[in-house]
Amino acid sequence: QVQLVESGGGLVHAGGSLRLSCAVSGRVFSTDVMGWYRQAPGKQRELVATITNSGNTNYADSVKDRFSISRDNAKNTVYLQMNSLKPEDTAVYYCHMNRRILASSRDYWGQGTQVTVSS
Length: 119
Known about the structure:
By secondary structure, this protein is an all-beta fold. The chain contains no helices and eleven strands. It has strands at 3-7, 10-13, 18-25, 33-39, 46-51, 57-59, 67-72, 77-82, 91-101, 104-109, 113-118. It is globular.
């Protein structure tokens, strides 16, 4: 059974930094794609960043050059370093894993961690 547990959220002033962590329990396959999503109040959940096992990354335009996603495969942990935070970054951040086996695809989600950026 795969479980994703986030940590590292909190309250920070605009311009500050936070680092989120996501620990994955259970087996992680080399084809699993890890990522971070966020959901602000009254808005839909949106992609923040993704990373493959080989380290290929993808970012939302709104966080490029400010956020950095990384992955420690030995520790089954994914990180999101968030710099130059803005009030509009305030949201619940969710760790995500997409697993594809043959023709099937399954998504796993963490419980979410709150990030609040004050102006």
